[in-house]
């Protein structure tokens, strides 16, 4: 062994290096380093190779073998919507019926909140009932918050809604709220029903799980395209897309919540002679209620997120304001609407969370008259009736008087302008630095990888981590992407995702570790992260575009901000849940705090860190698609273009490609987390 | 004492694993322990037979994992036995349709669980009334019935509380009230006091005996605590690895353990905790002066403080208060110090 001879003859410091190198080259590490070196070499020289061999297929998937799935799907969908008939009725009739089914309650809620009820059309319309007064709506929100928790929450929620009125966002906000009020009950009821089915039938659960997985990984834009084609542009399409997007977590949470009802409680129900339906209604669902409410909270937040995105297919409301402001580069207007979304998100989140925390509500004394049993409800009802009736004659009750609105648009605009003038150099320096040293090299690396090797290396890496079935699946998925002619865009997606995940982890994990070790830091960081997580993804784009203009860099910043939360949260969780005895053992052994962190805490927190990484990747991918709006050239852009052209095939294939990347990443990181848990002897 | 048999189960098996029915068929419903191991099956209950008489306290005792819970769930058909037969009041429980079973559970069975299994969203009163609610009894009636039960178990004044606001012992009282509100004939208790602190456990045992002296239920009581078993039981079935090792009265278990395993349990138990006043009394009704009445099922250990401090012997009576004989301090002390009298 020449290496060893060499090592034997050198001085001690060299020997350490030598040992390090031989450590690298032995066993499992060799595999990974070899894989990287080959990939790097092929990536660097692929273009030269293609020129030298005149083999264009090296860098481009041969177009003769492309799948052509897009056309297939497109013609299938147009067949569905134009030709399919079930005898008595056509597919078109079905979609129209569904539209009507959703449109009807939506119109009622919208009339109630903002439009008022009228008979007749257009100019001839005669109003028969005014909408609820803005004061009435605020009163209702306050009362609900008071019922859910306390006066503090009531003040917060009332304040948020008052903000919407005072700052001139009321009308758009109510349009958005109307969508939320329709989509949430449908999403919750549907999720509950499917979740119960999955709980009762293992076969159904097995069938629905992959569908849910796919629905949660297919980028949101991809849903929009077929819905747009089938249901047309408008609020109904937006609502359908929203429900589809917001329902899967409810299904999952319902199944898990029912499964975690203690066996004894179910047996108690059976022993008192419950029938199947009684057991579900009277025992399982009430016992699982706190967890189910967590699901409801999720549905609400996802609904809000999606309603905003769905303004692209006609949802209107705050999302539409943001979108059009972005398109006009109207800084002030965009930020105003964005802040309004944030305010609304916070109010809805805190409200639904308060319902999730189970509390004891004393039963009112039944001997009292009803208005004394429910004093707050009575007062609220009085306010609602009084202010709404007053709105008939005094328009200030009906809608917040326009003369009293405060607009902050110009302040924001000048603020951003000030930043752009005074901090331009500093911002630009950071931007240039990151572009030159991080973004461009990584982009070159990924874009250079020849597709054939890309397929192979993904298969090898995934197979090494998670077994050969995973490897084969990963390779097949990558091949699908290549054969759909999307290789280059997929590589851009991977490059942007990996850079943003890297940056999010770089920032998030230390923050999480800090929060995990320090109660005060945990409180502050936790509050910030909670708020970041409630913000609909759209909101992240606004300040970023204002400051950095369009392009990869803006996308990167938005994605990092959006995907930061799980990195922080899981790191903190991982540190906090370490068995205190192990830490004491470390201290007794004489570890310095630094050693304690690196030698004890971090290795033990590894599984949790990996789960955080998994979540970070998923969030990054989902946000990345949305950043197509600010001009990235990745798969997200492909979906976005499909949406603007209403090209179903293109949208679905590109959407599936994103989903495949997400699924590969998810399975690989989960396999890593599993093996690290096993190594640590945790279950 | 010959009691009419209320629940008769014979050759009951519960086997977990792939395709248990075919497995049982292959071995003609009597697989050995080696057969189970060889086929990777878990025999949670292995050929258990018990006859439970009307009005008796039948205790199933065994260490954790010995199959007690599974057996008692077979008896109530919460778990479907793999083989065997179970007769309840003369009808075959295993042949009952779902509807019949629901009726039997609604009217004739009650069960108390180790971890209370209360519904967190209902108050004490609503929890106790729950079995009646399921049967569709109207609210006023069921809450009145439940209130009686809540009073009987000593929770009067707390009927508006939620389970989370109660201590473990109080929660189990609610569990007991719930299980008794339908006035069942057959009462299952699966380690009802095992989750409680020792002091509370003792108090709950006394409470249990007090209730039974009022209600005269037929009881199947599960425990892993031998002291608890001998304190409460009319008869004990000792379980090990899914099999019943011996079924006997506490005193028979002490004097005549069938297997070394049973003997191991009884070895360190003082006789005074097992021997009942009924067995050491001088039979016959006397007119001589007595210090008071003591129930015949009390153990010597439970009664010694009273007997020892009294100037006269005590009269021993049965459940209905009919005098059976007398017991004096000397007889009791003989048992306490291990002198054969
Ligand atoms: N659903 C099940 N699947 C497989 N094994 C079970 C199941 N339920 C119980 N067992 C096994 O049966 C044995 C007896 O369990 P159990 O009746 O709960 O014991 P005990 O109540 O005496 O502690 C245990 O070894 C347990 O692991
Ligand atoms: Mg048990």
Task: Report on this structure.
The complex is a heterodimer of chains A (683) and B (341). By secondary structure, chain A is mainly α. Among the domains of chain A are: 185-333, MetI-like (MetI-like fold); 442-447 and 485-683, MetI-like fold (Orthogonal Bundle), CATH 1.10.3720.10; 449-483, no CATH class. Chain A is 81% helix and 1% strand. The model of chain A is unreliable at 1-11 (pLDDT under 50). By secondary structure, chain B is α/β, with parallel strands linked by helices. Chain B folds into two domains: 54-80 and 95-269, P-loop containing nucleotide triphosphate hydrolases (Rossmann fold), CATH 3.40.50; 273-337, CBS-domain. Helices cover 38% and strands 23% of the residues of chain B. Chain B contains 14 helices and 14 strands. In chain B, strands 6-7-8-3-9-10 form a six-stranded mixed beta sheet, sandwiched between helices. In chain B, helix 13 (300-309) links the parallel strand 12 and strand 13 (314-317). In chain B, helix 5 packs across helix 6, helix 5 (124-134) runs parallel beside helix 7 and helix 6 (139-152) packs across helix 7. The structure holds adenosine-5'-diphosphate and magnesium ion. Adenosine-5'-diphosphate binds at residues 16, 42, 44, 62, 64-70 of chain B. Residues 68-69, 191 of chain B line the site of magnesium ion (MG).
Feature tags:
heterodimer, A: 683 residues, mainly alpha, MetI-like fold, two-stranded antiparallel sheet, 30 helices, 81% helix, 1% strand, disordered N terminus, B: 341 residues, alpha/beta, Rossmann fold, CBS-domain, six-stranded mixed β-sheet, four-stranded antiparallel β-sheet, 14 helices, 14 strands, 38% helix, 23% strand, binds adenosine-5'-diphosphate, binds magnesium ion
């Amino acid at each position: 062994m020449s290496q060893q001879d060499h090592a034997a003859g050198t001085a001690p410091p060299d020997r350490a290096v030598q040992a390090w190198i031989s450590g690298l080259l032995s066993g499992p590490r060799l595999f990974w380093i070899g894989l990287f070196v080959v990939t790097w070499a092929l990536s660097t020289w692929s273009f030269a190779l293609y020129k030298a061999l005149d083999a264009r297929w090296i860098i481009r998937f041969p177009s003769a073998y492309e799948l052509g799935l897009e056309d297939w799907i497109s013609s299938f969908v147009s067949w569905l919507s134009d030709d399919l008939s079930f005898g008595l009725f056509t597919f078109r009739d079905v979609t129209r019926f569904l539209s009507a089914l959703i449109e009807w309650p939506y119109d009622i809620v919208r009339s109630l909140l903002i439009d008022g009820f009228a008979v007749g059309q257009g100019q001839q319309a005669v109003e028969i009932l005014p909408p609820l007064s803005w004061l009435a709506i605020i009163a209702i929100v306050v009362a609900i918050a008071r019922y859910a928790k306390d006066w503090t929450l009531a003040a917060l929620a009332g304040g948020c809604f008052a903000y919407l009125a005072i700052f001139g966002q009321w009308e758009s906000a109510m349009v958005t709220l109307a969508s939320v009020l329709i989509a949430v009950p449908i999403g919750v009821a549907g999720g509950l029903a499917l979740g119960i089915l999955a709980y009762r039938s293992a076969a159904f659960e097995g069938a629905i799980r992959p569908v849910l997985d796919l629905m949660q990984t297919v980028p949101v834009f991809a849903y929009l395209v077929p819905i747009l084609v089938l249901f047309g542009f408008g609020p109904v399409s937006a609502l359908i897309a929203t429900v589809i997007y917001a329902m899967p977590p409810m299904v999952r949470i319902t199944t898990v919540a029912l499964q975690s009802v203690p066996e004894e409680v179910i047996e108690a129900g059976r022993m008192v002679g419950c029938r199947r339906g009684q057991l579900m209604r009277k025992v399982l669902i009430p016992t699982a209620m706190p967890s189910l409410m967590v699901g409801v909270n999720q549905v609400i937040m996802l609904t809000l997120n999606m309603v905003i995105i769905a303004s692209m297919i006609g949802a209107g409301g705050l999302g539409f304001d943001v979108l059009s402001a972005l398109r006009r580069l109207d800084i002030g207007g965009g930020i105003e609407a964005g802040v309004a979304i944030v305010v609304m998100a916070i109010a809805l989140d805190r409200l639904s969370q308060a319902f999730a925390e189970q509390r004891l509500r004393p039963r009112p004394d039944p001997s009292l008259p009803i208005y004394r049993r429910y004093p707050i409800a009575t007062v609220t009802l009085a306010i609602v009736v009084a202010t709404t009736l007053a709105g008939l004659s005094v328009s200030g009750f009906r809608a917040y008087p326009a003369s009293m609105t405060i607009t902050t648009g110009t302040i924001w605009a000048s603020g951003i302008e000030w930043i752009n003038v005074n901090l331009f150099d500093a911002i630009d320096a950071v931007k240039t630095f990151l572009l030159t040293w991080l973004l461009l090299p990584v982009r070159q690396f990924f874009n250079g990888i020849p597709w054939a090797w890309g397929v192979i290396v993904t298969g090898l890496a995934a197979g090494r981590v998670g077994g050969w079935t995973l490897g084969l699946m990963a390779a097949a998925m990558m091949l699908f992407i290549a054969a759909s002619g999307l290789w280059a865009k997929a590589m851009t997606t991977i490059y942007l995702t990996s850079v943003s995940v890297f940056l999010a982890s770089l920032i998030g994990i230390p923050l999480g570790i800090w929060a995990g070790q320090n109660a005060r830091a945990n409180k502050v960081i936790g509050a910030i992260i909670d708020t970041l997580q409630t913000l609909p993804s759209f909101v992240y784009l606004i300040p970023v575009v204002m400051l950095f203009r369009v392009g990869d860099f803006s996308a990167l910043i938005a994605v990092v901000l959006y995907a930061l939360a799980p990195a922080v949260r899981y790191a903190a969780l991982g540190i906090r849940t370490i068995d205190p005895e192990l830490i004491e053992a470390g201290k007794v052994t004489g570890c310095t705090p630094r050693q304690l962190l690196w030698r004890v805490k971090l290795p033990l927190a590894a599984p949790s860190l990996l789960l955080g990484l998994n979540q970070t990747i998923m969030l990054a991918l989902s946000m990345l698609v949305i950043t197509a709006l600010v001009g990235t050239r990745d798969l997200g852009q492909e979906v976005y273009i499909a949406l603007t052209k209403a090209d179903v095939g293109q949208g679905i294939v590109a959407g599936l490609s994103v989903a495949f990347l997400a699924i590969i990443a998810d399975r690989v990181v989960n396999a890593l987390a599993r093996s690290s848990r096993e190594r640590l002897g945790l279950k | 004492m010959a009691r009419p048999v209320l629940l008769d189960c014979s050759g009951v098996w519960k086997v977990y694993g792939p395709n248990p029915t075919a497995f049982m068929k292959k071995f003609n419903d009597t697989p050995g322990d080696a057969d189970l191991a060889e086929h990777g099956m878990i025999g949670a209950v292995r050929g258990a037979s018990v006859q439970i008489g009307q009005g008796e306290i039948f205790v199933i005792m065994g260490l954790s994992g010995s199959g007690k819970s599974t057996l008692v769930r077979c008896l109530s058909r919460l778990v479907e036995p793999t083989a065997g037969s179970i007769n309840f009041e003369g009808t075959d429980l295993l042949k009952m349709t779902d509807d019949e079973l629901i009726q039997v559970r609604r009217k004739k069975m009650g069960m108390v669980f180790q971890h209370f299994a209360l519904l967190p969203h209902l108050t004490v009163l609503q929890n106790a009334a729950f079995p009646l609610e399921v049967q569709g009894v109207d609210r006023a009636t069921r809450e009145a019935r439940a209130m009686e039960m809540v009073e009987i178990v000593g929770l009067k004044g707390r009927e508006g509380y939620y389970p989370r606001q109660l201590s473990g012992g109080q929660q189990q009282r609610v569990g007991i009230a719930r299980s008794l509100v339908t006035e069942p004939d057959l009462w299952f208790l699966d380690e009802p006091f095992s989750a409680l602190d020792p002091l509370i456990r003792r108090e709950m045992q006394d409470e249990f005996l007090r209730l039974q002296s009022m209600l005269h239920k037929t009881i199947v009581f599960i425990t892993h605590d031998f002291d608890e078993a001998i304190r409460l039981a009319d008869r004990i079935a000792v379980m090990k690895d899914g099999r019943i090792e011996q079924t006997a009265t506490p005193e028979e278990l002490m004097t005549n353990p069938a297997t070394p395993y049973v003997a191991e349990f009884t070895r360190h138990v003082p006789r005074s905790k097992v021997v009942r006043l009924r067995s050491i009394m001088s039979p016959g009704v006397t007119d001589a002066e007595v210090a008071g009445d003591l129930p015949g099922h009390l153990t010597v250990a439970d009664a010694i403080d009273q007997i020892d401090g009294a100037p006269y012997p005590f009269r021993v009576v049965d459940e209905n208060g009919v005098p059976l004989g007398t017991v004096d301090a000397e007889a009791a002390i003989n048992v306490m110090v291990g002198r054969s009298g």
